[in-house]
């Protein structure tokens, strides 16, 4: 294929922008032809000044769209200097082109719609590239997450440039990729370990949107809910996290029944990705998944969380701590360790006290729960502690039984009153256990109501 500069300028003048692609896999022949012409002309290779002058001479859009000229110059610089054998030597050219491309989309006064599709395809190219280079940051001499942070700053400028469209005509094309931009930014913020930056994106998404949430592609809706759920989880908003993760899971489950079987491996991976956070979130709310279904997707995950659920529902603090210790590395990586360490012990104690109430209080129709009975149960639950204390067992002591009971009462997990002088907890005299120990889910929802700002996600 012999593609010349003259042909490139002719295509661009006619509004054909497809040639402006730096992806060697799909546009390698065009890039190679242009590289040959740019480096082997009779007067010597084109330097940057000659490229700028050459582009200005074309008078694209009457020479008024300066950023478009800069985009073409950056594309020609890439074609001239790219090293197809070295990603590192070419990355400055790649990121410079991507920044120039995005800058073109900041001003709605020019015909940017044809560039939106190019931006989307290059975003899919640039983010994995930045991720790969950042992985080797120590060997290539960059800071950790330096390139992904740069990409996020470029995309963030595009997000901030999008204004609420009030016209009667169809909105600009970049409004159609608003949710796509939101998801890409939030994904990067999680990758660079700065999830709190997501707050600005979540808060400003709706004011910028001109469409109902359900009008965006289903794939992007699912991704948004998944990321929003993870964000809530990191901020200890368990109810909101569960609702969003569960909605993402159900949407993806519906999709899985309608797609071509060839897409099932990818869907399976995404379902597992959601369940990785949905299952522990559900356990903190006293809810269990269908482990048979989880086992059909990922046996290891099913066995792992089934074991955790067993310890929690058996009221075994010793078993819970052992499980957390065994999976510490993975939980740290997913930012779940501290959350489970904080929330699950009280849920576990709740099941322990529930068993004691059921076997001692309601069975004897007494309405009284002596401290010594609770202490004995807690000793069995906590087990014998030996050696150095760790983050898992430092606060757990059978002698803290009154603190446990009072905390359960304050959380609404136990309805009763403690009388320290009598060393007794008095509960309602009834055979209906739920009158004494309300369901965890009800209490959590009551204590931590849903964010009303998310209601628009379900509007149609």
Explain how this protein is built.
This protein is mostly helical and about 450 residues long. Helices cover about 65% and strands about 0% of the residues. It contains 23 helices and 3 strands. The chain has helices spanning about 5-15, 25-40, 50-55, 65-80, 85-105, 115-135, 135-140, 145-160, 175, 180-190, 200-210, 220-235, 240-255, 265-285, 290-295, 300-315, 315-325, 330-335, 335-365, 370-380, 400-410, 435, 440-445, and strands at about 370, 415-420, 425. A 3-stranded antiparallel β-sheet has the order 1-3-2. Strand 2 and strand 3 form a beta hairpin. The model has no long low-confidence stretch (mean pLDDT about 90). This is BN860_10088g1_1. One of its GO terms (cellular component) is transcription export complex 2. One of its GO terms (molecular function) is double-stranded DNA binding.
């Amino acid at each position: 294929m012999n593609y010349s500069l003259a042909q490139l300028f002719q295509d661009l003048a006619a509004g054909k922008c497809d040639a402006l692609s730096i992806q060697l896999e799909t546009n390698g022949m065009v890039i190679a032809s242009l590289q040959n012409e740019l480096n082997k002309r009779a007067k010597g290779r084109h330097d940057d000044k000659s490229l700028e002058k050459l582009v200005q001479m074309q008078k694209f859009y009457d020479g008024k769209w300066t950023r478009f000229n800069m985009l073409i110059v950056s594309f020609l610089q890439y074609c001239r200097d790219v090293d197809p054998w070295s990603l590192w030597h070419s990355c400055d050219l790649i990121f410079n082109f991507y920044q120039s491309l995005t800058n073109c989309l900041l001003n709605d006064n020019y015909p940017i719609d044809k560039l939106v599709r190019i931006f989307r395809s290059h975003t899919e190219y640039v983010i994995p590239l930045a991720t790969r280079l950042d992985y080797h940051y120590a060997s290539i001499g960059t800071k950790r997450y330096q390139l992904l942070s740069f990409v996020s700053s470029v995309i963030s400028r595009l997000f901030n440039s999008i204004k609420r469209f009030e016209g009667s005509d169809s909105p600009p094309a970049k409004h159609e990729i608003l949710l796509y931009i939101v998801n890409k930014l939030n994904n990067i913020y999680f990758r660079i370990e700065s999830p709190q930056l997501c707050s600005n994106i979540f808060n400003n998404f709706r004011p910028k949107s001109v469409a109902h949430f359900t009008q965006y592609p289903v794939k992007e809706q699912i991704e948004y809910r998944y990321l929003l759920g993870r964000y809530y989880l990191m901020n200890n908003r368990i109810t909101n996290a569960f609702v969003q993760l569960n909605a993402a899971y159900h949407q993806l489950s519906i999709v899985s029944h309608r797609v071509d079987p060839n897409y099932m491996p990818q869907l399976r991976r995404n379902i597992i990705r959601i369940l990785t956070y949905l299952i522990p979130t559900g356990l903190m709310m006293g809810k269990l998944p269908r482990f048979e279904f989880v086992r059909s997707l990922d046996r290891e995950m099913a066995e792992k969380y089934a074991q955790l659920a067993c310890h929690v529902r058996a009221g075994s603090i010793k078993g819970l701590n052992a499980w957390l210790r065994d999976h510490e590395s993975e939980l740290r990586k997913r930012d779940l360790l501290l959350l489970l360490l904080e929330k699950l012990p009280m849920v576990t104690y709740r099941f322990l006290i529930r068993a004691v109430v059921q076997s001692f209080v309601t069975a004897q129709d007494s309405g009284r729960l002596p401290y010594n009975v609770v202490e004995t149960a807690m000793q069995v639950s906590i087990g014998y502690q030996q050696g150095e204390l760790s983050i898992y067992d430092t606060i757990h002591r059978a002698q803290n039984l009154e603190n446990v009971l009072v905390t359960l009462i304050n959380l609404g997990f136990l309805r009763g009153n403690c009388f320290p002088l009598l060393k007794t907890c008095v509960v309602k005299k009834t055979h209906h256990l739920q009158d004494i120990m309300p369901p965890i889910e009800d209490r959590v929802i009551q204590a931590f109501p849903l964010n009303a700002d998310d209601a628009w996600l379900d509007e149609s």
